[in-house]
What does this fold into?
Amino acid sequence: MPFIPHTQADEAEMLATIGAASVEELFDEVPAALRIDGLEHVAPGLSEMAVSRRMRQLAAQDGTPLCFAGGGAYEHHIPAAVWQITTRGEFYSAYTPYQAEASQGTLQVIYEYQTMMANLTAMDVSNASLYDGASSLAEAILMAVRANRKSKSQRVLVPDTLNPAYRRTLETLLAPQQIRIEQLAYDPQSGTVPAAAVAAWSGEDVAAVVVAQPNYFGQLEDVDGLTDAGHALGAMVIGVVNPMALAILEPPGRWGSKGVDIVCGEGQPLGVPLSSGGPYFGILCCRQALVRQMPGRLVGRTLDLDGKPGFTLTLQAREQHIRRAKATSNICTNQGLLVTAATIYMAMLGAEGLERIATVCHGTTGRLLAALTSIPGVSLRFDNAARFHEAVVELPRSAVAVIDALAQDGIVAGVALGADFDGFDNALLVCATETKTDADIEQFRSSLEAALAA
It folds into this structure.
């Protein structure tokens, strides 16, 4: 997008209009103790051409490494048409479509997204997205605590196998609201949470139970048992999912005897590139009975005065529209651009295409694990073979050291787990998607073997 800087004459004219003699005077309310004369480590200003050259040089330093890391963000092939359409001016420059008469295209895209996501999760309602997967889980828990009127404890059971970044986000957003997070321990042999860990809370007041599928280790949980155990406590059950995995796994709306109450997760696998960490978008779906507790915005389909179909914002219960005390959320947003990309991505692939990609991911991971565990001293951490497209391998030396060594070969080896899990200093979380070939896997295997032998 073009940037046209203000000239000194422009600045002088604007300052004169508002009655300020200088930019410094404009900000004279900022205490002197908080001001600085300059930024020591920031280089002097450059011309546009010099800045462009410098940015290309910095970008080149990242290179194009072969990535086998997952842990919540995944490298999938994105057809060129997805972002070619998404970045058209009609979508790229559009904000939240408050004026329905001028925003029918954007509103229809969001409506189609909601329909696709509700179908993928087997839930009744989907909103138009949140910031990311972590904040969508926080919002789902707030939603469950509000909706579960039988519970007064504000206690939520969260598995230790949940993404550590999600757990930290929950601590940040929920602790100030007096919501008590209780940990559910996992079985060290299978890397999954047994349903008995939830059932052990029988007789206690529990507002909600969180179930992750797949979990952070890539393992598949006993979602039926966990969901039924959560409902037996009188708790709301929240499913945290990878939407790509839902193409081949049972959707959370059909877990257990009744299905979960709320579904959330990260939508990045659906047509959004890794992008150095974001932006991404959060999924949030629920049962119809809970729709009034749902944060964010919902787009609905209706008829105009002439009987023609049209789309409009149907529900937007956030602080921007109603009193803060009555809002379902004070931090949610609509990631419209990324939702547009996800909608186009899902529309292009269809149900059969998503299933094919998920199946290839699962098979590729199997070949990756077979190759890595053929190296002496490398083994699988968990003996449960039920997983999606990532897994934990145990190495004969520090995972951090291995990651550093393979980085010299242009390989992102995975995610070191020692910082977040005790006793996992030699554990490496590896991932393979449809983007990895047999040659890529062999390159990883040979580089890892050489690094371990050094």
